[in-house]
Amino acid sequence: HPDQYRDNPLSKLAEEKLREVNEAYDEIMRQRAAGGGSGYRQTDSGSRSGQSYSSNTGGNAFYEIRQKINMGQLNEADVMLDNIVTRTAEWYFLKGLLYFKRGWYDAAYNHVQTACSMEPNNFEYRQTLNRMQNNTNMYRQSSTNRGYKKNDDFDICSICTALYCADCCCECAGGDLIACC
After folding, report:
1. Residue 98 and residue 108: Cα distance in Å, rounded?
2. Average pLDDT, the chain
3. Contacts of 144 (CB under 8 A, 6+ apart)
4. Cα within 13 Å of Cα(41), Cβ side
5. Percent with pLDDT over 90 in the chain
6. Measured between alpha carbons, how far apart are the two ends of the chain, in Å?
7. What would you report as the CA-atom Rg of the chain, rounded to the nearest whole angstrom?
8. In this structure, are residues 72 and 97 in contact, taking their beta carbons and an 8 Å threshold?
9. Which candidate, 4, 9, 129, 149, has a CA 20 to 30 Å from the CA of 84?
């Protein structure tokens, strides 16, 4: 924000970037208002094009969304998904893939799980969900082997006791870990 760069050589650049962000936001709002949820028109650069996608069902837009996710164009894919009105299993699956690429694993898992429950016989959805479960289990097992305990091994009393002991040790050494105790 330009206010953070007052009396700084970067103030002009910050003003220019904020202006670009505001223009982009205004364009997105104009496109959403003009489309009214009935159509979607956008190219890779974000400008309007002659190619139109139905936002009611997703149609062949799902294919392009998959491509954008695979190419790492996550923001564009997210905007395209948000403009699709009907939330099909494919929509949830692609939203889950997008979240997974962003590192939002819980949301990704929940969306892919929803896709699996909507279409339980879809092999691609089921395989992706299984891979997510295996990766999560492998992470939990490796952390347990490194000295971290499972969640059910912790309780609030043992945490409070450990903090109290650490505070006592710090106070004996002249410091203070917890100021209120």
Report:
1. 7
2. 74
3. 150
4. 14
5. 16
6. 41
7. 24
8. no
9. 129
Which range of 77-81, 143-147, 161-165 scores highest in mean pLDDT? It is 77-81
123, two tokens: 């092999």
Q: Which two tokens stand for residue 102?
A: 């962003």
Which token pair is 49? 């094009």
Instruction: Name residue 53's beta-bridge partners.
Output: 40
Contacts of 166 (CB under 8 A, 6+ apart): 177
> Which residue shows structure tokens 């929803």?
114
pLDDT in tens, 62-96: 888 988 998 888 899 999 999 888 889 999 999 99
Sign of the alpha-carbon dihedral angle for 152, 157, 161, 163: positive
Closest CA relative to residue 31, chosen from 55, 9, 13, 8: 55
Local confidence band at 39 (pLDDT 50, 70, 90 cut-offs): very low
